[in-house]
Amino acid sequence: MKKVTIQPPATVANLVCGFDILGLALDEPYDTMEIRLLDEPGVIITSKDGFPLPKDPAQNTAGAPLIAMLEELGQPIGFEVIISKHIKPGSGIGSSAASAAGAIVGANHLLGSPFKKDDLVRFALFGEKVASGVKHADNVAPCIYGGITLIRSIFPLDIIAIPAPRLHVTVVHPQIEVRTSDARQILRKQVLLKDAIRQWGNIAGLVAGFIKQDYDLIGRSLEDVIIEPIRSILIPGFDEVKTKCRAAGALGGGISGSGPSVFMLSKDEATARSVETIMQEIYTRIGLDHHTYVTTVNSTGVKIIA
Amino acid sequence: MKKVTIQPPATVANLVCGFDILGLALDEPYDTMEIRLLDEPGVIITSKDGFPLPKDPAQNTAGAPLIAMLEELGQPIGFEVIISKHIKPGSGIGSSAASAAGAIVGANHLLGSPFKKDDLVRFALFGEKVASGVKHADNVAPCIYGGITLIRSIFPLDIIAIPAPRLHVTVVHPQIEVRTSDARQILRKQVLLKDAIRQWGNIAGLVAGFIKQDYDLIGRSLEDVIIEPIRSILIPGFDEVKTKCRAAGALGGGISGSGPSVFMLSKDEATARSVETIMQEIYTRIGLDHHTYVTTVNSTGVKIIA
Q1: Could you say which DSSP state residue A188 is in?
Q2: Cβ-based contacts of A212 with chain B (< 8 Å)
Q3: Separation CA A127–CA A107 (nearest Å)
Q4: Chain centre to alpha carbon of residue A265
Q5: Around Cβ A186, how many Cβ atoms within 10 Å?
Q6: ipTM score of complex
Q7: Domain containing A39: what range?
Q8: Contact state of A201 with B226 under an 8 Å Cβ cutoff
Q9: Which of A53, A215, A281, B72 has its CA 20 to 30 A from that of A110?
Q10: Do B145 and B190 reside in the same domain of the chain?
């Protein structure tokens, strides 16, 4: 039986000012998945570690992309997916995207790579649709491409790799659940033009800062006047984390995806570790269970390891 | 008497999707100005060619920036400004910005350059305030810096030079007047979040396209779903110009500043000249007097020539 083991990484979507258009892949944490090629039609989902995943493949974030891929292929084959989940669902670091991207990259590999990365993102979006009701690509694109990706447009899909200097990422996941669909629902449908102008100045600055390797500009541009003021209310300790981590030397940061995880970018690892200590102190004092990660940007995306 | 002759260039603000934050300087047209250092306080404005400029320096786009500079200097000196206007006021290619930037760059030169470019932009903004009621920097910044500039933020002022590949610019100025203040008034104060997301995807794509020298990405990103649909109504023939120029090979383009001028970017001069012919044919058929320019991006900003 043909099978492959793969590791899809966690991802940070939005990157503060780039709501729905920017994301980056992390080196850690990552899921481990085994994909098996079956000689009869269908998709089977198996959870290896007791995470309560939907068994109906059409309702599963790994299954829905595979169904879409199989429909396009039109061949009498199928896949079994065995998932070892390390990226906790609802953490805000792209858990559903990792399942979707991992399954689709693994399946493509087993078939001899007939599809390009753009196609893989297009299939993986069916997983995001199942998870949150919206086909947003700012997790699946960096998960598949690696590095920092810009999604200029979803329809038609237009993904651009954004080169960047070395960045260290500290993530804290306070153990409360913020559902992506809830975090979307509280957003206003209209925004002030003057706020939108400030936001697109920051997005332009952030992209320029990444490509020009200008850490200072990256830091100045990590400002969100539209989404963060609303969503941060759902995250206990958010303002304190942001203020103290910046004071400790972080370039900046904010809500990872729709939260509750909060991420900070730093120029060097020592700063990223100080930032971790600050995050731990704050959530210990508040009395919230939490996990932290100190990691870097994953430049390759989903890893095929066997 | 100390005096200097300078040539401030025309500029294209907004660059389609970058409302209020992006602008570029043109090689042509440009104004010619003579700035004279006076040993008594005050600012004198002299028009050399009969353009009806406000003589009260506080109400003049060249005078107001000089008054602001003199106040900050606190010395008993003054300036005379003799203006030869070639960039027609109300054309949408930064006529007021050229007067403001030219005066302030010339005055700074006469004083031995005590001020940095950021300061010069800050002073020049007083001219834009006189001209349109709003301190927008997307003309004065490229006029002073040259090239393509990003104004990440106005308060505090944060200007970033955006490197770009060689670009040819075709501009048509249909001879109707669109006042900047009117063009601002018709804009809506609120925009849909989904439109803002599409816009910031394009802005990020445009900045990435410029820095990565990716002409194709530049072309795809030259799309404005917020300002253009409203303002283009003020410009006869706009949709036809855009469609036909793109079909002729232009990367894209749109309203220059608040109009009525329309600009198109092309990869090579031959295309830029074909685009000019198309523009001329359309406005000749409509029966509107018009000027056209085929030029390139001015990389140095205001020129000091004597």
Answers
A1: -
A2: 211
A3: 14
A4: 15
A5: 12
A6: 0.94
A7: 3-163+299-304
A8: no
A9: A53
A10: no
Predicted confidence pLDDT, tens digits, chain A (306 residues): 899 999 999 999 999 999 999 999 999 999 999 999 999 999 999 888 777 778 899 999 999 999 999 999 999 999 999 999 999 988 999 999 999 999 999 999 999 999 999 999 999 999 999 988 888 999 999 999 999 999 999 999 999 999 999 999 999 999 998 777 778 788 999 999 999 999 999 999 999 999 999 999 999 999 999 999 999 999 999 999 999 999 999 999 999 999 999 999 999 999 999 999 999 999 999 999 999 999 999 999 999 998
Instruction: Decide if B252 touches A, using CB distance below 8 A.
Output: no
One domain for residues B41 and B77: yes
Virtual CA dihedral for B79, B305, B144, B165, nearest 10 degrees?
170
Q: How far apart are CA A131 and CA A135, in angstroms?
A: 9
Question: Inter-chain contact B152–A189, Cβ cutoff 8 Å?
Answer: no
CB contact A200 to B (< 8 Å): yes
Taking CB atoms and an 8 Å cutoff, what residues of chain B touch A220? 152-153, 158
Sequence-separated (6 or more) residues with CB below 8 Å from residue A64: A57, A58, A100, A126, A127, A129, A130
Q: What total of structural domains would you count in chain B?
A: 2
Which residue in the set B19, B162, B204 is minimally distant from A203, CB to CB?
B204
- For residue A133, give the DSSP letter: S
Residues 6+ apart with CB under 8 A from B162: A208, B22, B147, B148, B149, B150, B207, B210, B211
Q: Looking at the complex, report in whole angstroms how far the Cα of residue B191 sits from the nearest Cα belonging to chain A.
A: 5
Residue reference for tokens 């493949």: A57
